[in-house]
Amino acid sequence: MHDSVAEDATGTPPPGPSASKPSSSEPPAEPAPSLLAEVGQLGRAVRKLFGAQLHLLATELGLARSAVSWMLVAGLAATVAGVGLGLTLLGLVGVLLATWFGSWTWALLVLALLQALFLFGAILLFRRCMHWMSLPATRSEWRAMMHETLRRADRGVGAESKHEGETER
Question: Where are the transmembrane segments (predicted)?
Answer without folding.
Answer: 70-98, 104-126
